[in-house]
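F.,

This is the one I mentioned.
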């Protein structure tokens, strides 16, 4: 009877693994994907904790960790204290061993590892948290033949009464299958992120203000603001999740039109004359044109963000109700003197309104060639003064509510950070995202 029950459980789990791995293909954002992979993996083997390390050069960087026990104690995932942990990529650690050997490693009890084994369990995290990683399964995340993206580590599987047990052969088999699918999805998402960051590098080579780190910060801030705004507005969770997944990449591309602006204008010190200003403002329609023939939902989101990110809540922004091909007002949208009417308030897409807040706020708190960084309270004061003028008041409220997370974003992506580091940067631990129901 027990054997039959186990068989039924295994069949159900295999089906679940199939559904979960298929759902990974819907994701484009690396950070959300990592969260999802770790959450799903822990569900599949009832693991109390787990982490993902990403390869960066000859190191493994702890990109994400989850620990139900510790999260209860410290008050949430974002409070976990060990997000900047780095391991050398060699055989000496459990994660390093699985990565170098390109094969899974299962340890039943880290306290009883043979001293002659090539690997040891590093106890720095255990010691700093008083949490013992007893049973550990480590699986490499492989990509192109011979290459490795990182490792997934699952810690302390629990039995039905909450006691730590050992991982079983069946656990290993189901995880080998799931990790293969996760690796493919991760490779695709990493490639997309990497290509996006490289596009920003091209812009950056024309315009020193547009560093990849600035684009990354704006992207994270915009995602955070949308998370707050959409929760407050009761956006259905599947829609909310879909946008949260696309927002980081879409927001990074908001200034892609600057590639077609003459470098002499982009780098000119001091004020621009009227013609130069018009040329500079053209980066919006030039960028929007690239995405006007949208082939994917991501294209559509990028289009809206680009087109609306310099509009103002009070209608004084640009480019307004313009035909992006001709530069002329759309029918019925010519104002005095034939000028294009500005978009105002909720005529502007929420994505544009959010990007405007994130873009200006990051410019205020960052050092630019034309100014020093403003301190956080002065920057907040300026944003509040512009609420209802430049900015949507509700989005400014979201900014105030997520102020501490925005500070973490600033610290995580300094302008000195290089492109490779940005590509493998640890995501910020966010509030749990409302995943679509897949179970
Ligand atoms: Fe812009």
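My design for it:
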């Amino acid at each position: 009877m027990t054997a039959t029950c186990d068989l039924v459980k295994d069949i159900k789990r295999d089906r679940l693994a199939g559904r979960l791995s298929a759902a990974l293909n819907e994701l484009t954002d690396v950070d959300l994907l990592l969260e999802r992979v770790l959450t799903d993996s822990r569900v599949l083997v009832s693991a109390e904790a787990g982490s993902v390390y990403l390869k960066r050069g000859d190191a493994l960087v702890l990109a994400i960790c989850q620990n139900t026990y510790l999260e209860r104690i410290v008050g949430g995932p974002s409070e976990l204290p060990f997000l900047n942990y780095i391991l050398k990529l060699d055989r000496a650690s459990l994660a390093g061993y699985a990565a170098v050997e390109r094969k899974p490693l299962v340890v039943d009890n880290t306290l009883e590892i043979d001293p002659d084994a090539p690997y040891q369990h590093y106890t720095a995290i255990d010691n700093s948290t008083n949490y013992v990683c007893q049973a550990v399964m480590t699986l490499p995340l492989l990509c192109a033949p011979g290459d490795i993206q990182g490792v997934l580590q699952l810690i302390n599987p629990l039995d039905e009464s909450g006691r730590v047990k050992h991982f079983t052969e069946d656990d290993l088999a189901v995880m080998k299958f799931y990790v293969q699918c996760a690796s493919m999805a991760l490779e695709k998402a990493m490639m997309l992120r990497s290509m996006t960051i490289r596009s920003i590098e091209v812009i950056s080579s024309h315009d020193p203000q547009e560093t990849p780190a600035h684009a990354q910060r704006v992207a994270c801030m915009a995602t955070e603001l949308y998370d707050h705004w959409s929760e407050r507005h009761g956006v259905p969770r599947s829609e909310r999740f879909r946008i949260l997944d696309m927002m980081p990449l879409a927001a990074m591309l908001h200034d892609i039109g600057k590639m077609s602006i003459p470098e002499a204008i982009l780098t000119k010190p001091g004020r621009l004359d009227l013609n130069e200003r018009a040329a500079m403002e053209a980066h919006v329609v030039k960028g929007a044109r690239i995405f006007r023939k949208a082939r994917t939902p991501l294209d559509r989101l990028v289009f809206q963000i680009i087109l609306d990110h310099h509009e103002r809540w009070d209608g004084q922004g640009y480019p307004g109700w313009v035909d992006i091909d001709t530069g002329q007002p759309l029918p019925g949208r010519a104002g005095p003197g034939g000028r294009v009417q500005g978009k105002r308030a909720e005529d502007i897409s929420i994505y544009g309104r959010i990007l405007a807040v994130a873009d200006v706020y990051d410019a205020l708190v960052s050092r630019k060639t034309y100014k020093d960084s403003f301190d956080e309270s002065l920057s907040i004061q300026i944003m509040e003064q512009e609420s209802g003028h430049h900015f949507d008041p509700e989005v400014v409220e979201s900014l105030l509510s997520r102020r501490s997370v925005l500070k973490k974003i600033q610290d995580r992506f300094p302008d000195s950070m290089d492109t490779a580091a940005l590509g493998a940067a640890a995501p910020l631990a966010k509030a749990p995202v409302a995943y679509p129901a897949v179970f």
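Residues 426-439 have pLDDT under 50 and may be disordered.

Talk soon.
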